[in-house]
Amino acid sequence: MKIRVVALCCAVALLAAACGSRLSEDELAAGGGTGSAASASSGSAGTGTGSGDGAATGSDANQIGTLDIPCGKGEAPPAEPTTAQEGVTADTIKIAVISDKAGQVKVPTASIEESMQAYVDWCNGFGGINGRKLELKKIDSKLFSHLEATKEACNAGVLAIVGSGSVTDNQGAQQMVDCGLVEVPAYTATAAKGLSDNVVAPLPNPSNFYPIGGALWVKQQHPKAAKKAAILASSIETATVQADRIKLAYEAQGYDFIYDKTTGVIQESYATEASEMKAKGVEWVTMVSATSETAKLLRDMKTQGFEPEVVDLGQQYYDPDLLAEPGSEGAIVQLNTVPFEEVDDSPALKAYMEAYDALGSKVEPTSLGVQAFSAGLLFSTAAKALGDDLTREKLLAQLKTIHEWDGGGLHFMADPGANASSNCFMYMEVKDQKFERLWPEKPTTFDCDDSYRFDLEDDFGGGATLKSS
């Protein structure tokens, strides 16, 4: 049986929109992005290295995984800030989260808002940050209303935007800078946001670099398949730009794309695309779209007996909806975060799950939700260090001094302060309608190397950096 592989576009959650009513709370509750929260499967130690290795040690009442908890009452009762700053009082720190909570289709970003509320409740349970309780303003960017959402945040009297994630985050990127806000997002989707001077992310995604570790590993495992590659993307800018980045980065590693197709945002069938790829002899396939659309493609491929050696998808496909599609059997999905299947091996992930469960939300936790929780920790770590002198300017400067960050073991090690692209990857495989770790084999680890960071030479970032005037 041929092995089919789902490799990464290690960056954004790319979604589709369609005409029709918005999702109800119950429909959102089925939101994707989770694997079963079972204990990790056993496996021999792999050669992969990275954050999370040994995370089961060093976790106590003062730590979340390997990270000192940044929340608490502080050494002295909080006082009035030494410098007047919007969003900060003697008792509170007000922050906002912007996310695509509700849209015309199910979104894998659904748990970002919930994860931030879980974080705020968790942090306040320790006493807040230096004794100041966090207050959270929740704003829905509704897929295509990011500018309006950002304006709302600008007028909400908040110190910063924390744990955010929106598909069209370029819309409000300049507005956020112009009104002086600082942002610590769960993820960024576009060049304008990812290269913004006021953004510090726990897992940076600068558009002018691309992580190629997965591409190199797949090519090593399937060298012939890499010479017969296909890429499909939905016809929205975020998806097509991401597809262009993948193609440029992968071609530089020796991939040959013999099929390149922009599809409809939502299609009833992908039979034509499946037939065309089969006729061309394609052996490696990736698609940048919503999980629901890729599931249709896999279904049509299976119906037509088209079985490429490699199917290559991104982080958003770590989703039960992918497991429900029989055509996904044998696929793997690359992740940034420790998978939920390994919660028993990761004290930090267990702390996240306990905080999320305490929220009582109907929305299932997601990998991007884990990144939002990490963003909360990153923000709090910087804010704690500033004590009573908490301003946006000093917060941004403090955030940029943090160059090693894994959220205590929630994800691979990253460099937020330098906004450096990832040099780590890992794969999960779909087996019998479950996600199982494929590479590296040891639970909670990632395969990391500086050579996995590919420079796109500003093709996707020139002039995009936003600075305050």
Q: Would you identify the regions where 5 or more consecutive residues have pLDDT less than 50?
A: 1-59
Structural class, by secondary structure, is alpha/beta
Q: How is the main sheet built?
A: 7 strands, mixed
Distance between the first and last residues' Cα: 59 Å
Write a compact overview of the structure shown.
The chain is of the alpha/beta class and 469 residues long. Helices cover 28% and strands 15% of the residues.
What does this structure look like?
This protein is an alpha/beta fold and 469 residues long. It folds into 2 domains: 186 residues, 3-Layer(aba) Sandwich (Rossmann fold); 181 residues, 3-Layer(aba) Sandwich (Rossmann fold), CATH 3.40.50.2300. The protein is built from 13 helices and 17 strands. It has a 7-stranded mixed beta sheet with strand order 9-8-10-11-12-14-15, with helices on both faces. Strands 4-3-5-6 form a 4-stranded parallel beta sheet. Helix 2 runs parallel beside helix 12, helix 8 crosses helix 9 and helix 12 crosses helix 13. The N terminus is likely disordered.
